[in-house]
Write a structure and sequence with these properties.
This protein is an alpha+beta fold. The protein is built from three helices and eight strands; from the N terminus they run ααββαββββββ. The strands form two sheets. The chain has a six-stranded antiparallel β-sheet. Strands 3-8 form a two-stranded antiparallel sheet.
Length: about 140
């Protein structure tokens, strides 16, 4: 499958929680273990003064980190998060937001991931690190 076909397939199967944030996988590098996603977040996901609620920021970071692993390893069925740390550095306002994920290390059953989020002003708004369980597809 070509890279364009993989992107199209990934975007066709985004879960509803990412669809509602108007998420899309823009790019990935399976060799480097990276992925870049874009979200067009409306004010309905903000609390006060147009600031995106932290849980929604976390969703975007988690999605980018997970997609980095999904796109790197075709035999991954699920990636339940075991531990997640998010640091909020700048406000994330509604608008176009970019989230990047990276696979730091992946073993047979555990993955270490990192993420960053760029707000509509182009600032690094949040960073994350996660430990996830890697659930592999069963062989037939």
């Amino acid at each position: 499958m070509s890279k364009a076909e993989k992107l199209k397939n990934a975007n066709a199967h985004l879960p509803p929680c990412l669809q509602v944030l108007h998420g899309a996988l823009l790019d990935f590098d399976d060799t480097a273990g990276t992925a870049e996603m874009q979200f067009d977040v409306s004010e309905q996901f903000c609390h006060s003064v147009n600031v995106v609620q932290g849980g929604n920021v976390t969703v975007m970071l988690d999605a980018a980190m997970s997609h980095a692993l999904f796109m790197q390893q075709a035999d991954v069925a699920a990636i339940p998060t075991l531990e997640l740390k998010v640091s909020f550095l700048e406000p994330t306002l509604a608008g176009r937001i970019v989230a990047r994920g990276k696979v730091v290390k992946c073993g047979k059953s555990i993955a270490f991931l990192e993420g960053s989020l760029i707000n509509p002003a182009g600032q690094l708004a949040a960073v994350a690190s996660a430990t996830a369980k890697v659930v592999r597809k069963k062989e037939d």
